[in-house]
UniProtKB/TrEMBL annotation:
Belongs to the enoyl-CoA hydratase/isomerase family. It comes from Halomonas cupida. One of its GO terms (molecular function) is hydro-lyase activity. This is Crotonase. GO terms for biological process: fatty acid beta-oxidation. Coiled coil: none annotated. Keywords: Lyase. InterPro entries: ClpP/crotonase-like_dom_sf (IPR029045), Enoyl-CoA_hydra/iso (IPR001753), Enoyl-CoA_hydra_C (IPR014748). It comes from the Bacteria.
Amino acid sequence: MSESLIEVQDNEGIVRLTINRPKALNALNSAVIDALEQVLVELETRADLRAVLITGAGEKSFVAGADIAEMRDKTPQQARDFAAQALRTIKRLETLPVPVVALVNGFCLGGGCELALACDWAVASDNAVFGQPEVLLGVIPGFGGTQRLPRRVGPAMALDLCTTGRKIDAQEALRIGLVNQVLSQDALEEYAQTLTKQLGGNGPGAVRSAKQAIHDGMDQDLDSALALETSLFALSFAGEEQREGMSAFVEKRKPEF
Ligand code: CO8
């Protein structure tokens, strides 16, 4: 494994990012966040990008939070700057125009849970542990947890997790809607490969439009959101992709996107 803090593997536009700081359970310090932001800035410019998968190095941890040792001596202004840097980076991940999927392969705590919440969906290994334990350290979530967690699991469960700081296992994360599936570590790897094939076989423009319709529509009233869907649906008939997809069906062959 190379020494870079963010490993990048590219499989024809399906990019897998691995947060690579396993000795600290992939805790997010400024260097990791800087490296992640640099990678994301590059990905934003890629017209051939089809999906992003993000995971942690090793079999024990996705991300065990922001780096506590690095944060300990921060002043309020330094804490604000650190949170701003992380929020900006996480927003870049969230707003990539393609599906972003968290492969949660172990501890997913604090800033790690907040990172997973910015992904379009998350799939966890059965040893994964989730939580927002910031109150145990005398702080609150600062990478978006108080805002994205209630939007994902509802305010009552978000308040439970953010005020007790209790940790939950993968099955409870599944039950409350924090993750879409729970799999063994091996099956998580197979899932990544299957997903790569599935997303790689679909019309890339259509996949992007589906994300855009859902993301942008969620911030609008239903009628405006339905009008947005209609516009994007109609637009999908303007390119080659729709003709190829529908012709392939009629001609009983696989489409070539
Ligand atoms: N920060 C820094 N180092 C960490 C972190 C972390 N979050 N988590 C683990 N490590 C390090 C440990 O210090 C240890 O290092 P070393 O080997 O040098 O002693 C190494 O990783 C292995 O960890 P453990 O020995 O503790 O492993 P265990 O299997 O015994 O325990 C746990 C695993 C339960 C995950 C435990 O490490 C733990 O509780 N970690 C902290 C989890 C946590 O509290 N996370 C939330 C952090 S706060 C946060 O994310 C707030 C984000 C918003 C910030 C706002 C901006 C300012």
